[in-house]
Amino acid sequence: xxxxxxxxxxxxxxxxxxxSFLAYVLSPPFSRPALSLKGLFGSEETxxxxxxxxxxxxxxxxxLSMMARKVTVGDQLITDEGKNxxxxxxxxxxxxxxxxxxxxxxxxxxxxxxxxxIAAAGKPAGQPASIAMYHTxxxxxxxxxxxxxxxxxxxxxxxxxxxxxxxxxxxxxxxNYDQTPHDPHDNNAYNRSRxxxxxxxxxxxxxxxxxxxxxxxxxxxxxxxxxxxxxxxxRLVIGRENPRMSANMDFAKRMMAAxxxxxxxxxxxxxxxxxxxxxxxxxxxxxxxxxxxxxxREEAEKGIALFAGIVPSVLGVTGSPGAPVTDVTARNxxxxxxxxxxxxxALVGGGAFLVISTGSWSxxxxxxxxxxxxxxxxxxKRRNRL
Amino acid sequence: xxxxxxxxxILIIVSVLIYLGxxxxxxxxxxxxxxxxxxxxxxxxxxxxxxxxxxxxPVNTTINVGGGLVPAGLAVYLLVKAGSTKxxxxxxxxxxxxxxxxxxxxxxxxxxxxxxxxxxxxYIDSLYLYPLxxxxxxxxxxxxxRAAFVAAVLGVLLxxxxxxxxxxNNRAPAAAVVSIGGAGILDTVILAGIVAVLLAEVIGExxxxxxxxxxxxxxxxxxxxxxxxxxxxxxxxxxxxxx
Lengths: 386, 243
Known about the structure:
The complex is a heterodimer. By secondary structure, chain A is of the alpha/beta class. Chain A has helices at about 1-25, 105-115, 145, 155-170, 190-200, 245-260, 295-310, 310-315, 335-360, 360-380, and strands spanning about 55, 65, 75-80, 85-90, 95-100, 130-135, 175, 205-215, 225, 230, 235-240, 265-275, 285-290. Chain A starts with a helix and ends in a 7-residue tail after the last helix. Chain B has one domain (about 5-215). Chain B has nine helices and three strands; from the N terminus they run H-H-E-E-H-H-H-H-E-H-H-H. The longest helix of chain B is centred in the middle third of the chain and has 25 residues, at about 85-110. Chains A and B meet through helix 1, helix 5, strand 8, helix 9 and helix 10 of A and helix 1, helix 2, helix 4, helix 5 and helix 6 of B.
């Protein structure tokens, strides 16, 4: 039996080496992902075709938002005015969303930040806190400036990141900007950037931003004139596949309310869709889309700089003398809601599993007490309890 | 973390405790003793802070001890201890199937430079794609918790190998890195292993419950030994029964 296993190990190892070698020899640079089954899954060009993005409309048929991603029932959109919509129906590239009402938290945060002048930058007090940044899709570029929508490993998005880092530095905030590329541009990139994000989190940042740009063809959707500057506005994205989503949601709402009270409507909307985007790593992790690939890069740089200017104050890291306590997370319910969800799911899920596996309530209780004995048994060996 | 309010700190602590609790239960199912399971978890946590550079590679490559070496070592250990050659082959087949399916879905279907943020066809984050695919393929191929763990862990590592080939192929710049298991205990390697086993366990238990117990007729004795519940072999439970 051992000999046959050895043969199988050697066989699999040789097969893997052969496949790797073939992929290396046969694939020309920058043509396609390794081991790509060309044609089977379509080519990237299809993404540029008209209609390859989703338009979200309200029940009256008015356009609420556009985004180059698949929208599913249950996704949510919160506009810059605080209007909360939930997607109820999706037909191909058109999604219909129902108006749920005004988001009370956006309204209260908006009032809070409008009354409290955003704290001016000051000398950091005590331990200097840092803000971390990275790009999951590091090839993203802006056609009018960069000439293409994608520059492998060094996209125009890095200039947008630098603009944000410079602005944060200008308000005396420590920035930890990781420029590791995570190419190719695919969903697995989030798995690769997760490692970058975890490394950044080891330095205990107060927030982590993953900077992207959108892929809709219409630049005017994001374009606006704010404080006399032509800018590309931003979308904040929250992943629904994150058990602590409501904590990240609170953070996004605070950021939008504060940014828009200082720089009117620089944040266009918050979209809550499928995905996790490594937001489970930190309750203050956020994905930002700075304009779309048909905006000029300069527009995106200016837009994100306006946003960056208020970030330290919202997070309370400017430390200016007498600065108001802007971190209202301590008073809000989102984090506690996330906590209740996690504990609730753990209890209900664990309980349901115990009942299923034992077949009865009494069996589940017996197993639970056995589990407790096992736990205490780890700490105190119970050999002589007879 | 001192910058965070109490609510966020409590949230993080509770999440970590539940996560580690699940990890301990999963390792318990891997026929490790309770202390063995705790030792593996401790090794993963401590190892999460250690990245070892892999020498002689054209693309900058590192492997994390907690997120790469320890789970891979455990997977190989489980393979060696597998109940039968059939189970062993099934686990490895599930591993290859997991890598191919995850790569195809995550890198070929859910891609596109103007598809934001996770791709036009994005339905599930890669964080969950690995464990779900690993768990399901392992269950279909191997129908055992150990096969699920092995397939999910080694499948994710294989995807990193494919990524390495892609980077070499595309003359990646010096800044590009392949960080195998680089997120340590929070890496998809670990998460994939945990969720895959839980998935196999839940599906398996429900199926067995519906059928009134596992099939035992005509099964080899090595496999039947593997079907025994791990806690029945532990002295703590036996002690309780004697009492």
